């Protein structure tokens, strides 16, 4: 029997409600595939910050470095500034463990209506650059409180950082439907995104079997709404990938269903699996958070750990349950709860 050690970081808000669902599914499907999970749970969160002054301990990364993977719920709570909670936990993990690919698949499931008329088949993956780009600490605030007050924020795009994520995206497109779209804004941003475009053009020549195009982010958002079915792999910078993944998830039925894998493709460090959504303070504590994103994360983690059949079973069970009109949470138009959906899914995978 294979045993994997998983670091669980439930975090804040609905992160604490959806992570137990993912864990229960892992245990159930693992039992039938000869896979066991040992969990170490970490209370790293805004509650910890308010209590102890830090989202995680100073040696936090060392405490999870030896785990096979990290499963994270969500971070963020009203009362703690978002840049404090995210730069105190989520972003150091992504960067410290060189999780430079953020993989965000989305599809329209049968039985789950897209809010868009005629959305048809949507089956795409956003490959988001995850450790540089617009998310940077370089910059500053000047002249606070004066009429000349200003903020400056530098974006960082490096050849090595962009091309390694392009490699991942082109290779993924070659394994899927052979179609890649690059998100850009080189008509308005004069240094970084023209550089991004040059690198995409250079890298595309290495992948002659992948058809590709480049779209400005504004037009791309419109096309995502008007013809979402045309996309296969979309590669984008950190910020563009962030925005596109919520948009794509909403087009496919709701952001509660979308998973993310923060991957360190070299496997030098643990990869981290977390739903695309946040801590949803507006519904936290009500027991109605949609657990599909977190459960799909569990499937992505199974795949990453070398159990593709178990992963496919979990994804298949989500599809079966939705197609059968089983329980669903209010964000999907149902009256179900986190627990009722999870119970129904456990019956399919146990
Ligand atoms: P959010 O994703 O938390 O919520 C946006 C909307 O979607 C809300 O109306 C919420 O109720 C709904 N929603 C989200 N997930 C849902 C689910 N599983 N089931 C049903 N409805 C769901 O985004 P936000 O409001 O911008 O952010 C709230 C907090 O979460 C902030 O502090 C933000 O910084 C943080 N955040 C954290 C992460 C993360 O830890 N990975 C990701 C995004 C946002
Ligand atoms: C996500 C989130 C985070 C991001 C925030 C909370 C920093 O929106 O994982 O999509 O932008 O990366
Ligand atoms: Mn986001």
Automatic annotation (TrEMBL):
Key words, A-Z: Manganese, Metal-binding, NAD, Oxidoreductase
One Pfam family of this chain: Iso_dh
Keyword Ribonucleoprotein: no
Keyword Glycoprotein found: no
Cofactor: Mn(2+); Mg(2+)
Record-linked InterPro entries: ICDH/IPMDH (IPR050501), IsoCit/isopropylmalate_DH_CS (IPR019818), IsoPropMal-DH-like_dom (IPR024084), TTC_DH (IPR011829)
Catalytic activity, reaction form: (R)-malate + NAD(+) = pyruvate + CO2 + NADH
Entry's EC annotation: 1.1.1.83
GO molecular function, one term: NAD binding
Entries under Gene3D superfamilies matching the protein: Isopropylmalate Dehydrogenase
Native source species: Amycolatopsis suaedae
UniProt name for this protein: D-malate dehydrogenase (decarboxylating)
Family: Belongs to the isocitrate and isopropylmalate dehydrogenases family.
Isopropylmalate dehydrogenase-like domain boundaries: 5-345
Enzyme class: oxidoreductase
């Amino acid at each position: 029997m294979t045993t994997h050690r998983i670091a669980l970081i439930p975090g804040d808000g609905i992160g604490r409600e959806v992570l137990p669902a993912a864990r229960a599914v892992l245990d159930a499907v693992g039992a039938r595939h000869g896979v066991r999970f040992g969990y170490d749970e970490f209370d790293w969160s805004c509650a910890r910050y308010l209590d102890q002054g830090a989202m995680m301990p100073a040696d936090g990364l060392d405490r999870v470095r030896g785990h096979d993977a990290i499963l994270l719920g969500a971070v963020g709570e009203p009362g703690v500034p978002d840049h404090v909670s995210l730069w105190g936990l989520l972003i150091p993990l992504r960067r410290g463990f060189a999780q430079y690919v953020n993989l965000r698949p989305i599809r329209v499931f049968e039985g789950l209506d897209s809010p868009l008329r005629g959305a048809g088949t949507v089956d795409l993956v956003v490959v988001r650059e995850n450790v540089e780009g617009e998310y940077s600490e370089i910059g500053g605030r000047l002249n606070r409180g004066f009429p000349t007050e200003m903020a400056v924020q530098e974006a960082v795009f490096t050849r090595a950082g962009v091309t390694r994520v392009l490699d991942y995206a082109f290779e993924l497109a070659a394994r899927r439907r052979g179609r890649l779209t690059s998100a850009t804004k080189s008509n308005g941003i004069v240094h970084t995104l023209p550089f991004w475009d040059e690198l995409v053009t250079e890298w595309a020549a290495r992948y002659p079997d992948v058809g590709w195009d480049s779209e400005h982010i504004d037009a791309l958002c419109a096309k995502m709404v008007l013809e979402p079915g045309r996309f296969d792999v979309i590669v984008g910078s950190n910020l563009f990938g962030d925005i596109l993944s919520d948009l794509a998830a909403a087009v496919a039925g709701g952001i509660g269903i979308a998973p993310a894998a923060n991957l360190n493709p070299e496997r030098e460090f643990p990869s981290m699996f977390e739903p695309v959504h946040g801590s949803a303070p507006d519904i936290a504590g009500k027991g109605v958070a949609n657990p599909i994103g977190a459960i799909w994360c569990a499937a992505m983690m199974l795949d990453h750990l070398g159990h593709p059949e178990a992963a496919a079973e979990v994804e298949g069970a989500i599809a079966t349950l939705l197609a059968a009109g089983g329980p669903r949470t209010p964000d999907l138009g149902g009256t179900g709860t986190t627990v009722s959906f999870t119970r129904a899914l456990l019956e399919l995978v146990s």
